[in-house]
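Margin note: ligand = guanosine-5'-triphosphate.
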Amino acid sequence: MAGHGEEMSPFVMRYGHFVDSRQAVIDEVTAVFMPEKRSYTGLAQAEIFCHGGRQVVTLILQEVLASGARAAEPGEFTRLAFMSGRIDLARAEAVAEIVAANTEHSYSAARDHLLGTYTQHISDIRGKLIGLIAEIEASVDFPEEDISPDEKNTLLESAQQLTAEIDRLMETYRGGKIVNEGYKIAIAGRPNAGKSSLFNQLLKQERALVTPTPGTTRDYLSEWIDLEGFAVNIIDTAGLRKAGGTIEKAGQTSAKKIIADCDLVIWMIDLTQRKWREQLYGDIKMLGHNNIISAQNKIDLVDDVADLKAGSGLPEMVATSCLTGRGIKGLKKVIVQRINEKMPDLTSGVMVTSARHRQKLAAARKALKSARQKIKLDESPELTAFDLRQAASALDEITGKVYNEDILKEIFSRFCIGK
Ligand SMILES: Nc1nc2c(ncn2[C@@H]2O[C@H](COP(=O)(O)OP(=O)(O)OP(=O)(O)O)[C@@H](O)[C@H]2O)c(=O)[nH]1
Ligand SMILES: [Mg+2]
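Resulting structure:
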């Protein structure tokens, strides 16, 4: 920068000209310097703020690289922040989560992870585990004294409580997965029932989310919407009918796969079809899904529908008209209810959204179970302590107290450049 030579005071934004090696001005910029231990990465760090044009950025980058810098890998800044001990691994992962968050709930889960509420909760459980290990190891020092039945009960109870805490945490993953990966809904039904019309109604009424889906060729339409803060993937399947040509058959096979894979099926009924009641039982049975809502569609064309009740093999039903929009609001309400059924308390700030974390919790739970068994059978305290230490180390893999290169590679390669 022109005017270099003077020391830059930390955290003071300086204004100046960015010049190339021949002193030609590239842009008018501001820049700031952050000393070691007080920057994002924990290393001494400088940031240059230039105009956003592609050419300007390229030229400045060229100069910076020519003077010996190297471009950062995806996630490298956050990785450095982790390596310097400024943030733990769960919080580092939350940086990627917050960048990817595009709905209210995914954002707030990511924010809670980033702020450390979740890490704190894991650390608390770990602390209790270490306490239990200490108690058990204390008995190693007095091998001549057997553990009294009272002591044994206390140990078992503590271990049981810890298991219950881990269970509660693991249960949040049911909702956490939805918050993180989205809720998948398939719209299915006989030909002409109004599937595509419902698809369009939902898209028209809700904010569409730009979520990249793998670009495979497919015979169905898939879109993402924001439904009361949840990312919802709606899929318009090909008609599930028995007859049909080869292309239709291919469509049917994939429709079945999609249906098996989704969280909820909306089964569209065409009320103008005389035999819809008779068909419904068989159709629902054929779907074989445990979460179905039925939309009795084209209500605008018929007089009466209120003669079939949910239960006895039939799903909950909502009367709709995808032509006039009647009943769509009610249908969305039922969908949101179904999503909420799977949600833990969203205000607690403690929700497992990562499959990796869930896996580590399961490992901790398993080790705890084994420890409880050993206490019950009066096995040697050393062996029990070993199991408990394994449980603690599984939790340490969540927060990154214990890590290996493979874990780090996997986590940080998913980051985007510049984070
Ligand atoms: N009157 C009325 N017509 C509807 C309603 N919903 C859909 N339709 C009409 O029914 C016809 C079929 O609708 P689609 O949405 O294409 O049905 P689909 O289930 O996607 O049909 P396929 O993909 O061919 O199986 C169209 O002419 C729609 O305009 C409704 O609620 N009321
Ligand atoms: Mg269609």
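The first strand starts at residue 14 and ends at 19.
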